[in-house]
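Contributing new records

If you add data, match the layout below exactly. Sequence lines come first and carry their own label; structure lines follow with theirs. Keep one chain per record. Anything else will be rejected by the validation script.
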Amino acid sequence: MSKGEETRRQVLEAAVEVAASTGLASLTIGSLAERAGMSKSGLFAHFKSKETLQVQVLEFASEAFVEDVVRPALSAPRGEKRITTLFESWLAVSRDGTAECLFVSAAWEYDDQPGPVRDRLVRMHLDFNDSVAQMFRTGIAEGFFAADADPEQFAHDLHGIMLIFFQAHRLLGDARAEERARSAFSRLIESNR
């Protein structure tokens, strides 16, 4: 990795942390330059605009999410084990990481703000839902789930479990948030067998 690429990576890591805690919309080249110990012009050379910076922050966080959540699932055996690995990895990232926090907060920030940042965020959510549905669909084809189960509905319901876990854990400080999420996930799996 070149020095320029390493600098860019370090800046994006810092940007994900800032955006996860204060919001993607509040991220500016000036504030990030100060945090990264760089000049505004030096940082501007990497990203050219606030909008480009925001989109690249989403891309960087998405790569981390895929590495931490999707890849472990794809490495697991197909069917229920793969779906369970996806859920457990997603739960761990939501509990301990910053990427999921960024995607949830950015979804609230940009749900009614048309433009490239919202478009990229929507595409990421749709792509992930498609990935979950495809993992589930493979489980149907191999007999792990009911033949008439609905993969898109499963992806929707699983996402719902994760969103309420995130709120219960992060906002409400519910000590039983993880236990409740696992219970809901078990019922979801059982209802699709």
